[in-house]
Amino acid sequence: MNQTNHVCLLPGDGIGPEIIAEGVKILDAVGALSGVTFTYSEALIGGIAIDKTGVALPKATLEAAQASDAVLLAAVGGPKWDTTDPGKPRPEEGLLGIRKELGLYANLRPVRLFPALAEASPLKADIVAGVDLLIVRELTGGLYFGKRERFFDEVGCGTGGLPGQRAFDTLEYREYEVERILRHAFDAARKRTKRLHSIDKANVLESSRLWRECAHRVALDYPGVELIDMLVDNAAMQLVKCPRQFDVVVTENMFGDILSDEASMLTGSLGMLASASLGDGTALYEPSHGSAPDIAGKGVANPLAQILSVEMMLRYSFGLDEAADAIVAAIEGVLAAGWRTRDIASPDTPPDRIIGTKAMGDLVAVTLQQ
Ligand code: NAD
What pLDDT, in 10s, does the model give residues 253-294? Predict the structure, then answer.
């Protein structure tokens, strides 16, 4: 095969540089095996971009991303840049900005339990056994992108009728935004077990009532797919009570953000959850977790979510399904052999099987080549 793919790397902050190195290691291993060439460029995003350029998403980063065939992001953020001052730049602006600029409205988060990790989940093994679901999260609308403002010194906003502050965020959706993400989810459901849970808060929120109406209208175009409406509070409970009832789950931006972190615990750790953000142009792949400042620089972060993001890149951007399957098989092999990073170790894991970020990446790469 004679294919060259250019990947824009955005390591970001915290554990970002450590885990993205392992993602690149796996891409290079795939390249060596398949004859596909991967070339790379690296750009700044998040806190490090604020330090070096004053903004979280420099123009050069956006241009590098737009010029690439796919973007591999690690994570952004950290206490150094935490601020409640609305006038100061925040690392997350880089993340939200690149999603918006690349038009990445569909975020796919597969939640699949590797059988060897059943004991790593805080839930009982019989509850999580066989979990394999796909969360389809709307990514460029809703509360995270709506109008927001903070007012100062308004009379009656402080305690005891004193002047104080008032703030609002807006959860807004346009019909086309809802419809296109629903179609994405219905298409995915049609390829899987033909069951789609649409999660909303239609008993309270007008935007959710629009969402639910759209879901039922779009469902008419997918007669083979069963559509199940579920309120988000119930969904949060059902995810831990009986996760196997879910196959494809579609929901708005913030609900998806929260539910997918919850769902990560079904797989053992946030360090196992990858994601693909798709639109109509260059796609972006990143772990679902953050920059984990508490373990940054220690070499103990789990690189598997980053490596599984590479797996999704091979599938969705490059059509290299065989290589993607081989990565999943390699991870399965490494886990079945008992190797664990700290976050997915159980009390029974022998200490000599608990390894660091680089060693886990090396093992997956070596297994891939066997
Ligand atoms: P986090 O996801 O960074 O960490 C939550 C917990 O999970 C921590 O205990 C962390 O050590 C652990 N964890 C996360 N990834 C891990 C991995 N690969 N291996 C082992 N353990 C892992 O969430 P947080 O602590 O709430 O946020 C930290 C920073 O990350 C904040 O600045 C936040 O804004 C940012 N954040 C960024 C993204 C992103 O870049 N997509 C997403 C969420 C949070």
Answer: 999 999 999 998 898 888 999 999 999 999 999 999 999 999
Atom nearest to 81 CA in ligand 1? 32
Structural domain that includes position 306:
1-104+273-370
Would you place residue 1 in the very low, low, confident or very high pLDDT band (cuts 50, 70, 90)?
Answer: low
Atom of ligand 1 nearest to the CA of 46: 40
Q: What is the mean pLDDT of residues 96-117?
A: 94
d(CA 19, CA 361): 9
Which band of pLDDT confidence, cut at 50, 70 and 90, is reported for residue 127? very high
What's the number of domains the chain is made of? 2
Nearest CA, atom 10, ligand 1: 292
Do 295 and 279 fall within a single domain?
Answer: yes
Ligand 1 centroid – CA 49 distance (Å): 18
The per-residue pLDDT for range 32-44, each reduced to its tens digit, is 998 899 999 999 9
Answer yes or no: are the C-beta atoms of 147 and 166 closer than 8 Å: no
Model's pTM, two decimal places? 0.93
Q: What residues contact 77, with CB distance under 8 A and at least 6 apart?
A: 12, 13, 14, 46, 47, 91, 92, 290, 291, 293
Task: Give per-residue pLDDT as tens, 296-340.
Answer: 999 999 999 999 999 999 999 999 999 999 999 999 999 999 999
Asked if 215 and 314 sit in the same domain, the reply is no
- Torsion region of 279: left, alpha or beta (phi above 0 gives left; psi -120 to 50 gives alpha): beta
Expressed in angstroms and rounded, the spacing between residue 290 Cα and the centre of ligand 1 is 3
- Ligand 1 center to 191 CA (angstroms): 31
Question: Does 115 reside within a domain?
Answer: no
Ligand 1 centroid to 300 CA: how many Å? 13
Judge whether residue 86 has pLDDT over 90: no
What per-residue string of b and e applies to 156-185 under the rule 16 or more CB within 10 Å gives b?
Answer: eeeeeeeeeeeeeeebebeeebbbbbbbbb
Output the residue whose Cα is nearest ligand 1's atom 25.
292
- Please report the pLDDT score of residue 268 as a whole number: 86
Q: Which residues line the pocket of ligand 1, CB cutoff 6 A?
A: 15, 75-78, 92, 95, 270-271, 286, 289-295, 301-302, 305, 343
**Residues annotated as catalytic (active site), given as ranges:** 144, 201, 233, 257, 261
